[in-house]
Design a protein that fits this description.
The protein is α/β, with parallel strands linked by helices. The chain has helices spanning about 5-10, 20-30, 50-60, 100-110, 135-150, 160-165, 170, 175-185, 220-225, 265-270, 280-290, 345-350, 355-370, 405-415, 435-450; strands at about 40-45, 65, 80, 85-90, 95, 115, 120-125, 130, 210-215, 230, 235-240, 245-250, 255, 260, 275, 290-295, 295-300, 315, 325-330, 340-345, 380-385, 395-400, 420. About 30% of the residues lie in helices and about 20% in strands. The chain has a 7-stranded mixed sheet with strand order 8-7-18-19-20-17-21, with helices on both faces. A 5-stranded parallel sheet has the order 10-2-1-14-23, with helices on one face. α2 packs parallel to α4 (about 100-110) and α3 (about 50-60) packs parallel to α15 (about 435-450).
């Protein structure tokens, strides 16, 4: 059930990823005397990429101001604690702790984690029928084989879904296979009807355990933000970069700086929420259009008593793909919390944003009642996400869509005139769609600016 599990298990011979000395130094840097260099940087966005860059730039003598459109920092690293436990709305896991910069960063920030055991699961079919481990494992192994080989049949103009259906029509309509395609592919990448049939397995992986945050992923942005000048509720609407100084318009105010680092999500760029003057280069505009953005929404429900199996994951295979088809047992790492977390992906995730809480709960309970019987209790409360309609993100994370070329991620990262810089998970060719990719992109852009002075 691991995020990116299918890539990790279906690809072989990947090189081990080791942190460079510069990354380790930036993660573990001690207090030092900072000599101002006279240069000013405005960082747009107080997510992990923006804060990582701002922290390193300040440590190297830059005068840094971070502008954040929301009323708190973190952006897609958001944690809701209204239910008495940490519900991470965005990133939840450290995906591979070996060599991953988030591992050390999480320790420094005081983020607690727990191992999620992928071998601790039960699979249910409709009608509450328990699926045998042998049947599940056989299909899982076959999926990995298909993911290794299907790329040979891929075409530039065809989606993953189109090619898969043409090669495996029976599997495309099988409930278990719908589950695998949903949770092992769509969850990790994006909409199957728009996912590239040639690039679906792109991206590097860190090794080691997958660990979930137990006290909130927002501990990381909170740690990075210490000592920084951050202005909240500042919505940037225009950036002018033709003159010597870059001008940033936010809340009817214009601020100037030597350099500007834009770290807003790709969805915000796609929505043209910020006007660039002059217009961005054609290559960057094309990349903004061509790289896809997936939508994944999370739903955390609590009960007075637990009625479900004592396993880490409970999977369910309904007819409709991408719809509340697996549940994370929160009790496994919060023993006093009677809670389950479930997910919706792609178009169904977007559809949930038009539904009321009562409608969502009814759909989720329909699946749980099919598994455990109609006598199970109603949940006491639910919290949820709405990433597609969130004007600060307009979706969850990037993926390789039909029409995407890997150079587009580099184009998204390309600086303009050594004045306008870009960071975020969508600018990392090797680690797009991940929190560690976002962090690395911020360090990368800070290094560029440091090299200029």
């Amino acid at each position: 059930m691991q995020r990116r599990k299918f890539i990790k298990d279906s690809l072989t011979g990947l090189p081990a990823i080791v942190l460079t000395e510069s990354l380790l130094a930036s993660a573990c840097k001690k207090e030092a005397i900072v000599t101002p260099n006279g240069k000013t940087v405005i960082v747009i966005g107080a997510g992990i990429s923006g804060l990582a860059a701002a922290k390193k730039l300040k440590e190297n003598g830059f005068n840094v101001v971070v502008l954040e459109s929301q009323n708190k920092i973190g952006r897609r690293l958001r944690t809701d604690r209204t239910l008495g436990l940490a519900f991470d709305e965005g990133a939840s896991w450290i995906h591979g702790i070996t060599g991953n910069p988030i591992t050390a960063l999480a320790q420094q920030a005081g983020m607690n984690t727990a191992l999620t055991d992928d071998d601790s699961f039960l699979s249910y079919d409709v009608g509450g029928a328990v699926r045998s481990d042998a049947v599940f494992s056989q299909a899982e192994d076959e999926l990995y084989t298909i993911l290794k080989t299907m790329i040979k049949s891929g075409k530039v103009t065809q989606s993953f879904e189109t090619v898969f259906k043409s090669l495996y029509p029976a599997k495309a309509n099988d409930r278990l296979w719908k589950f695998f395609l949903s949770t092992y592919v769509t969850f990790d990448t994006g909409d199957l009807n728009n996912l590239s049939s040639l690039l679906y397995n792109e991206g590097e992986e860190f090794g080691g355990e997958e660990r979930i945050s137990t006290n909130g992923y927002d501990t990381i942005p909170n740690y990075l933000a210490t000592g920084l000048t951050i202005q909240l509720n500042q919505r940037v609407t225009k950036i002018e970069y033709a003159d010597t100084n870059v001008k940033v318009e936010h809340n009817a105010t214009i601020s100037e700086a030597d350099y500007v680092l834009v770290t807003v999500p790709l969805g915000v760029l796609k929505n043209n929420s910020i006007q660039f003057t002059p217009a961005l280069p054609i290559a960057k505009q094309n990349a903004i259009q061509k790289v896809g953005m997936n939508c994944v929404n999370k739903f955390l429900l609590t009960w007075n008593t637990a009625f479900w199996d004592d396993v880490h994951y409970i999977s369910y295979t309904p007819e409709i793909r991408d719809k509340f088809n697996y549940f994370l047992n929160v009790r496994k790492f919060h023993p006093t919390a009677n809670a389950l977390m479930t997910f919706a992906y792609a178009d169904y995730a977007r559809q949930t944003e038009t539904m009321t809480d009562a409608q969502i709960i009814n759909e989720i309970m329909g699946h749980l009642k099919d598994i455990y019987g109609t006598g199970i209790p109603a949940p006491t409360v639910m919290v949820r996400t709405k990433w597609q309609t969130n004007e600060n993100s307009f979706s969850a994370y990037s993926y390789t869509a039909v029409g995407t070329e890997m150079r587009h991620f580099d184009d998204l990262a390309e600086e303009i005139n050594d004045k306008l810089f870009f960071a975020g998970e969508h600018t990392e060719t090797d680690y797009f769609s991940t929190a560690h990719g976002a962090y690395l992109s911020g360090i990368r852009e800070a290094d560029k600016l440091i090299a200029l002075v």
